[in-house]
Specification:
18% strand; Aldehyde Dehydrogenase, Chain A, domain 1; globular; binds ligand TXE; Ald_DH_CS_GLU; Aldehyde Dehydrogenase, Chain A, domain 2; 17 helices; oxidoreductase
Amino acid sequence: MTETTSPGAGLTDAPFDDNLTEVDVARVAATLRATFRSGRTRSAQWRSDQLNRLAQMMVDNEQEIIDALSNDLGRDPFESWFTDIAGTVAEARYAAKHVKRWMRRDRHLLELPQLPGRGWIEYEPYGTVLVIGAWNLPFLLSLGPVICALAAGNTVVLKPSELSSRSSKLMAELVPRYLDHDAVAVVEGGREISELLLAQGFDKVCFTGGTETGRKIMAAAAKHLTPVTLELGGKSPVLLADDCNVDVAAGRVAWTKLINSGQVCVAPDYVLAHRDVAERFVDKVCDAWVRYRTDQPKGMRIVNLHHVERLAGYLTRTRGDVVFGGGVDTAALTVEPTVVVHPDSSEPLMTEEIFGPILPVLTVDSLDDAIDFVNARPKPLAAYLFSESRKVRNRVVSEVSAGGMLVNHVAFQASTTRLPFGGVGNSGIGAYHGHWGFEEFSHAKTVMTKPTRPDLSAMLYPPYSDKAWKLARKLF
Ligand code: TXE
């Protein structure tokens, strides 16, 4: 692991200017709006150039980014590269390559009564977009939405999370060096700054974070009727059918549950294992965690004391059996990878999003029970199924509602540019990545053109005659 400074250091030496005022924030917004009005962000050339620069920024500063993530989150360098760096670069390069095509008019043939005429969708940038980033994958979940906003031709204010303050500071340093600084601004700060920004009435807001904060963001945006994209969390279940490949399921769940110490919105939250495979699955997860972490300290770094205490609270209040781990070190800000079997479905471990390296495993008697369990709760951001059967897969895909679904693996559905990523219900509104990101940050403007000759609509002008009635009934 790259050497880290003391846990939580990023929290105490907050690098951002707490004295930003409404006037400063308004000035930033005014600059970005003026740039948007100048029209320069609309060309395909400007967009792809900015996107390529953003990708280059991530490549040129790989070590600085890894160091910032190590400081903020105690993250392993490989994981930092794999999640925040590679994912952001891929998204930016893909958008740079395709944006010209995405911008093309989407023409549609009109129905007979609308002829002569032509119709199309013109993808128009909203204007100036506010992106409020998350702390868990600070680069990916801040710059990912920025990429989509730029691809759509907007100017952008990015407010990275104050909880990952080194990453926030690094973005504030790098973004103006690489990107058009009159079109993309980084404003650092906490809740007060987010509130000041929201009060500016941007043309679009994208927030990534918890469901409760998402509600507040949406309420603040509603005052200006600002459209929102909310990438929230939820409890993403893993369903293990009786025919699943237990070895593979255990290896994949064990790995993905530990990435970023489980602080990932699409991490497996809990497991519903069929009675026939539950015990074997738990044994294999425990084995895998022993194997994966031979050279590591037992505990896994959590972002701050509040979240360590939150996780510790889940463990002290559980009525399940802790069969692996369970240790919490508040001074070191760590929680051990932990398996809890048979927790009560009404305890906090099973009602709150865990967002940490704790894996509850519940046993179910049938697929019906598993599906009913998931559907009786708020819709998750992701649902996972391990099964070898196409019939089982089709049932779960059609009967379980979730932002996204992945069969026989975990989390990978969120890291492709070829499919949309987003929640449903409590887990979010809207979706992005690749082409869907371009659409999410564009207004799909309806455009129709009509020739002035022949002027067929003159036949319908008032005073309305019987002839006009008859004609209208035939046509429409
Ligand atoms: O707050 P949040 P937290 C989940 C995870 C975690 C929970 C809470 O379960 O335990 O959310 O996370 C700004 N008006 N996820 O405590 O919700 C604030 O400045 C405007 C899922 O970290 O992330 C900060 O930037 N802004 C997840 C951010 O919101 C406000 C990623 C912190 O909110 C505000 C992270 C207000 N009233 C956590 N209040 C994912 N989906 O990936 C706060 N903020």
